Amino acid sequence: MSTAADPGAADRARRGDLAGADLLSPAAVADPYPLLAALREHDPVHWSERYRSWFVTRFDDVSAALRDERFSSDRIAPYRRAKLDVPEADQAVRAAFGVLEDWMVFKDPPDHTRLRKLLSRAFTPRAVDRMRPRIVELVDELLAAIVARGRADLVGDLAYPLTASVIAEMLGVPRADRARFKDWSDQITGLVFGGMGDPNRHTVGAHGMGELTEYLTGLVHDHEQTPADDLLSALIDARDADDALSADEVVSTGVLLLFAGHETTTNLIGNGLLALLRHPEQRALLDADPALAAGAVEEVLRLDGPAKTIARVLAADVELGGRTLRRGDRVFLCPAAANRDPAVFTEPDRFDITRRPGRQLGFGFGLHYCLGAPLARLEATIAIPRVLDRLPDLAPEDEDPSWHPVLLSRGMVSFPVRVGGPPASRRA
Ligand code: HEM
């Protein structure tokens, strides 16, 4: 209990209670929000001995850190130098980390500035917007198959194939080759999002990365011979007066887009459908006014968005929330906690699709703000209302779906649903 003589005692006691907090305990994987709220309230800059990392949970701290160059994104190159530049290292793992090292999301300025500028020339608002009719078509195709079967896994049968097809089509991957992407992408997930505890994740991830880069290298070669009206040709062409992407950078950026383009968006669509099925009154609002779809997607990004945490490594010592964080420390900035901070959002735990759009951090913030946000928003605002409209009797098979046990992202392993016929009131 806090006393006048020692007003910080209660706070330290609560911090003590939270000392063993584990975001990957089964309870926290299923629902991380009570633990994140306790951290935000009682230990907002939390040292986790278990993960040898800091967890930062308040909105102001997370958004300030995302703009602070001492919180470095360059976390692959130091790992490669320390662990993989040694003779006994697995060469396939080393090569896979070499591809990740070219991803702009793992770079600081000036390398980041250069890559982001070149990619922005190819990944334009026009390139995104012209996918609109294809997204509608793809959703309808997937829904037709689901209706015919009468049941579905909304992750595996809808969100994943939709988002994977959209980004593969944008890049120019032939349809016949797309089935192979799921395995590669699943394998790479272990490399990027980490499984903390899965000893094989680097070897398996390296295998997927090896096959995907080999495939894309061939595709880039084909595009160099015969340019097409797609993102891969645009990446090959993206250049400044005196700069362009190297062939390796085109391949690495292609892998980044394929990967970033669907893992997260799959989770946004899945989490969004789950939230609307769990809140029938919000679903009714959306049914009555389809213009609320964009607001509903923003609210899902805020309340249960795919980016649970964003990782950084400190490039210098930092004082934050009365703690001293040391150069080289790993920090998990937590949008999932910041987006429910009562200092910023009224009734933060309430799902309200009519909420005024706020400053949610679900796509990050600052230099690395998600480049694919317009595409993710477009896919989710088309898919979510369309699914609910076509499948009015949709109901979860399981009240407690299983979630991926990872620190960085929040998404369901699968989302089994029952698909009934339309109720009498809707048949009229
Ligand atoms: C709901 C879906 C998505 C979410 C929640 C999401 C989330 C994020 C977040 C939080 C970041 C910042 C990472 C950091 O600061 O370290 C980011 C960066 C990025 N995202 Fe997304 N993303 C989504 C969809 C997409 C899509 C569809 C694409 C592309 C097709 C994409 C491409 C990228 C790229 C290239 C970056 C790196 C930007 C940079 O480093 O400057 N994302 N995303």
Please provide a brief summary of the model.
By secondary structure, the chain is an alpha+beta fold.
Shape summary: globular
Number of domains: 1
List all distinct small molecules, including ions and cofactors, that are bound in this structure: protoporphyrin IX containing FE
What is the end-to-end distance?
Answer: 63 Å
> What summary fits the major beta sheet?
5 strands, mixed
Order of helices and strands: HHHEEHEHHHHHEHHHHHHHHEEEEHHEEH
Number of helices: 20
Q: Specify the CATH homologous superfamily.
A: Cytochrome P450
User: Could you say which structural class the secondary elements and strand pairing correspond to?
Assistant: alpha+beta
Under CATH at level 1, the class stands as: Mainly Alpha
Rg is: 22 Å
Q: Could you give the count of β-strands?
A: 10
β content, as a range?
5-15%
CATH topology: the name is: Cytochrome p450
- The whole-number mean of residue pLDDT values reads 91
Low-confidence spans: 422-428
**From the structure provided, what is the oligomeric state, counting identical versus distinct chains?**
single chain
Helical content stands at 40-55%
